[in-house]
Amino acid sequence: MNHPRVCNVTTDFSISRSLSLSPPQVPNLWISVNAKQLRPQLRHIALFLRYKRNLVRQRQRAEEAEMVTAVEKKTEHVTNGAPGFKLVGYANFVRHNLKSDRFHVKRFHHIEFWCTDATNSARRFSWGLGMPIVAKSDLSTGNLVHASYLLRSGDLDFLFTAPYSPSITGNLTNTASIPTFNHSAARSFSASHGLAVRAISIEVEDATSAFNISVAHGAKPSSPPVEIGDGVVLSEIHLYGDAILRYISRKNPNLNLIFLPGFEKYEEGSSYPLDFGIRRLDHAVGNVTNLAEAVSYVKEFTGFHEFAEFTAEDVGTSESGLNSVVLASNDEMVLLPMNEPVFGTKRKSQIQTYLEHNEGPGVQHLALVTEDIFRTLREMRRRSAVGGFEFMPSPPPTYYRNLKNRAGDVLTDEQIKECEDLGILVDRDDQGVLLQIFTKPVGDRPTIFIEIIQRIGCMVKDEEGKTYQKGGCGGFGKGNFSELFKSIEEYEKTLEVAKQITKPAAA
Ligand SMILES: [Fe+2]
């Protein structure tokens, strides 16, 4: 006797309840039938599986389309206004140094801050950074237009300038040591921005031709070339916001000037001979509203090449972020990064916070290279509470527990411990290691701050056999960007709490 073949089939079509389309009708639960009777059921099941597969594909296609739209939205504002400019992100970026500078760039020359009282600003920075005041141009030197004091540590020069009363100056504007200084511009600058950087100055072979070439390639002129004595020529180009790029050239580099003509040596004993080990400016970063426009503008008139880039995905936390491009000169020793805010995050981007408090674009931070970051930090932290600079909150202990894996081949256990004690961040790229730390904003507003860095590795020899360190060695702290933003967000939250506490109670 032939018994019918028996088969039990259990089907779970619960997924059909969450689908927007109606699935083919399939019998529920289990069935027990012979092979012939089962055929129609199997056809239904096959149909349903095909339907389910198609639906999954549709969903995948929809998700892919959504992702593309999101990426396009994110990069929309960086492509606007600059055809052909599109960020590719850190991982996809390939550096090409075609040595494309339009004129001969030598090095950073100085940074000039405009303020309302140069004496106090200069002394505060002198004390906080270990940079003695070495030169002056003020009433005592016959300058009736502006008071300027120069701080120096190694090759780093910071100049602080404030206006005197125009009623004192009268028609003696030619007593200014920096002839491009303008009373009303300086007053308006300080009113808008508070303490801020007016000029990023670079030494070039010829400040006249650098100016002419820049203007011929779209640069907005700020001040035409002027010889300020002893063969020194100065010219200025608008950079971003109210910040300018200042070109300085010297016909006779061997001439022994303390700084620029018109400046005199600061009296011995008037400035305490501090030295915390800071040696030069590594990079000067700007915050702008439209990165594509700013980068295209500066690239076009300087010929600088793109050294690195970071997108919101590379550097942002879940709550804030930025897009960033680093421009570099031929030898990559003049580095000009620029940031723009990214929108649509839970908390406002701190770049946007800067733009609001600064009333527009401007210099966000200055990265200073030290020859010994531990020594520099010990000295700076000692002065934090007594007139020096405070630092952003240190990363959590877990950061340093992981550091041995990340940089244990370069840093000893003692050095890692010292990094933790001092709150130093560590990052590396394919070439070297970067040690870095950020101060809190240096003035009243949450705008400009200082970064102290030490780069390790990338030592090469020039044509004359002289050893030097390649520019940008170890990167810019991409891996630490998120740590920075987390700590800035923490800091901003404390400001909000303070605001709530100090808010007067309703009557
Ligand atoms: Fe930096």
UniProtKB/TrEMBL annotation:
This is 4-hydroxyphenylpyruvate dioxygenase. It comes from Nelumbo nucifera. It holds the Pfam family Glyoxalase. Its EC number is 1.13.11.27. Keywords: Cytoplasm, Dioxygenase, Iron, Metal-binding, Oxidoreductase, Phenylalanine catabolism, Repeat, Tyrosine catabolism. Residues 107-250, 280-440 form the VOC domain. Pathway: Amino-acid degradation; L-phenylalanine degradation; acetoacetate and fumarate from L-phenylalanine: step 3/6; Cofactor biosynthesis; prenylquinone biosynthesis. One of its GO terms (molecular function) is metal ion binding. It is found in: Cytoplasm.
